[in-house]
From TrEMBL:
<keyword id="KW-0808">Transferase</keyword>
<feature type="domain" description="HAMP">
    <location>
        <begin position="188"/>
        <end position="241"/>
    </location>
</feature>
<keyword id="KW-0418">Kinase</keyword>
<feature type="domain" description="Histidine kinase">
    <location>
        <begin position="249"/>
        <end position="456"/>
    </location>
</feature>
<dbReference type="InterPro" id="IPR005467">
    <property type="entry name" value="His_kinase_dom"/>
</dbReference>
<dbReference type="GO" id="GO:0016301">
    <property type="term" value="F:kinase activity"/>
</dbReference>
<dbReference type="InterPro" id="IPR004358">
    <property type="entry name" value="Sig_transdc_His_kin-like_C"/>
</dbReference>
<dbReference type="InterPro" id="IPR003594">
    <property type="entry name" value="HATPase_dom"/>
</dbReference>
<dbReference type="Pfam" id="PF00512">
    <property type="entry name" value="HisKA"/>
</dbReference>
<keyword id="KW-0597">Phosphoprotein</keyword>
<dbReference type="InterPro" id="IPR036097">
    <property type="entry name" value="HisK_dim/P_sf"/>
</dbReference>
<dbReference type="InterPro" id="IPR050428">
    <property type="entry name" value="TCS_sensor_his_kinase"/>
</dbReference>
<dbReference type="Pfam" id="PF02518">
    <property type="entry name" value="HATPase_c"/>
</dbReference>
<keyword id="KW-1133">Transmembrane helix</keyword>
<dbReference type="InterPro" id="IPR036890">
    <property type="entry name" value="HATPase_C_sf"/>
</dbReference>
<dbReference type="InterPro" id="IPR003660">
    <property type="entry name" value="HAMP_dom"/>
</dbReference>
<feature type="transmembrane region" description="Helical">
    <location>
        <begin position="20"/>
        <end position="40"/>
    </location>
</feature>
Length: 485
């Protein structure tokens, strides 16, 4: 039933508001018009009856035994008649001469004055007041026979033929139509920005996201809507641009090992006598392993970018760093750890281990003699700094290394089979934990700093001069002995 009632309304908001406001205005003005009709009719009738009663009373007062003066009209009251008890007209004013009695009302003795309106076909309507002569006058003048004085006038034209109702109804309809038209016009001007936004949005396609909707001036709802739409379009354009760039880069990165794998297999098929099958299989396995690494990293990156929430739990960063170092090969560059106690964050253990593995593996790969890892707090933040003593990263490349598939020349030389996604995944994980991952200045080598919010702020001590840059509070709490892996 509700759906059927709603379906009767127009689909356009402009038409709906016009219909609703016009209907409400019509009802409101109809009530006012009816009240005005009642008040005007009552006021006119009261004035006519008052004048008729005064004129009739004056005529009755001028009567005397044996002397009944001819009635004289007063103002608009021009119809006067003296009627006996049998309904005969005894005397009348010039305008009422030859007419039948103005009415048939015979007031009783206890209510001698009454008002009435009589309408006759073709003769219009007459408003009158009838007065029953007092008993004394009746006895002295007419020998006890009851007589009645009728005093009235033709009904005013404003009341005749429902003219007042017609005028009021016409005024109500015109006023309602004017209000509805005004609402339609104002609604059209108000919705003009929306129509422009809709037209522009209809022209925007996936192949061209550079168009923007027109922004009205000021801070109206339409202006805010247009700005929000343009901001959304800008983000969408940037996301599509990144997606296309990512798809192009991904296809290139996947095409390289696939081309190498196909070349090895075709060579083995075309020249079976010149190619060692075992070596071909080993090369194919190496290329397949690289493909598998790239695909796995892409899946991880896709899950992180999709915003799927991961299960979080309290994680002791110092313990996590030691566990990550313990899983590394023992024949690599030694790692020195300085960890402050009670550094607990709320995060996903598996994802944080992946970040630490990437940072430690990169640091070991580029270090000449050692890697330093510090774990501490800075205000309400937990900070993990991984520093190597290698050649470092040029300032202009410090942000590029976090882009997907970006591998510097030194990285390609030291690890030819890498996917180039490790640091991009690590930064996404840091952002997913409301943290940051960045490259900071270091006297020598590269310094990666992981910054995460502490789960329990506790009491942080002021930094001391012996603390490494970016990590505060090591001098105030008992510090675990430095150890090497």
């Amino acid at each position: 039933m509700e759906a059927r009632r709603l379906s009767l309304l127009p689909a356009s908001m402009r038409a709906r508001s016009t219909l609703i406001i016009g209907s409400a205005c019509l009802i409101f003005l109809a009530i006012i018009g009816a009240g005005i009709d009642f008040l005007v009719t009552d006021r006119i009738e009261a004035g006519v009856f008052r004048d008729a009663q005064r004129t009739a009373t004056n005529w009755v007062g001028s009567m005397a035994p044996g002397q009944i003066p001819r009635p004289a009209p007063e103002g608009r009251i021009d119809l006067l008649q003296l009627v006996d008890d049998h309904g005969r007209v005894v005397m009348a004013s010039p305008a009422a001469a030859g007419r039948p009695p103005l009415g048939t009302i015979r007031p009783p003795k206890d209510n001698r004055i009454q008002d009435g309106t009589v309408c006759r076909p073709g003769g219009g309507c007459v408003m009158f007041t009838v007065i029953r002569l007092p008993p004394l006058d009746t006895s002295e003048i007419f020998g006890g026979e009851s007589h009645f004085v009728y005093s009235g006038t033709t009904q005013p034209s404003i009341l005749a033929g429902h003219r007042l109702e017609l005028v009021t109804t016409t005024g109500v309809l015109l006023a309602s139509a004017l209000v509805a038209w005004g609402n339609w016009w104002v609604g059209g001007r108000a919705l003009r920005p929306v129509a422009a936004i809709r037209a522009t949005m209809a022209d925007i396609t996936v192949s061209d996201l550079s168009m923007r909707v027109p922004e009205p001036p000021g801070r109206t709802e339409y202006a805010l809507l247009a700005r929000t739409a343009n901001q959304t379009l800008a983000r969408l354009e940037e996301a599509v641009r990144q997606q296309r760039r990512f798809a192009s880069t991904t296809s290139h990165e996947l095409r390289t090992p696939l081309t190498g794998l196909r070349a090895r297999l075709e060579e083995a098929v075309l020249y079976p006598g010149d190619v060692d099958p075992r070596q071909t299989i080993r090369d194919a396995l190496t290329l397949t392993q690289r493909l598998e690494t790239i695909v796995e990293d892409l899946l991880v990156l896709a899950r992180l970018r999709s915003g799927i929430p991961a299960q979080h739990e309290p994680v002791d960063l110092a313990m996590l760093v030691r566990e990550a170092i313990a899983t590394l090969p023992a024949d690599g560059v030694p790692i020195c750890v300085r960890a402050q106690g009670d550094i607990t964050v709320h995060g996903n253990r598996v994802q944080l281990v992946r970040v630490l593995d990437n940072l430690l593996a990169n640091a070991r790969r580029h270090a000449h003699g050692k890697v330093e890892v510090t774990v501490g707090r800075q205000g309400d933040r937990a900070v993990v700094a991984v520093t190597d003593d290698g050649d470092g990263i040029a300032h202009q490349d410090r942000e590029r290394v976090f882009e997907r598939f970006v591998r510097l020349e030194d990285g390609r030389r030291r690890e030819p089979g890498g996917s180039g996604l490790g640091l991009a995944i690590s930064r996404d994980i840091a952002h997913g934990h409301d943290g940051t991952l960045r490259v900071e200045d270091s006297p020598r080598g590269a310094r990666f700093v992981l910054d995460l919010p502490l789960m329990d702020l506790g009491d942080s001590s002021p930094p001391t001069s012996g603390d490494p840059p970016g990590v505060a509070g090591f001098g105030a709490l008992p510090q675990t002995p430095a150890w090497r892996a």
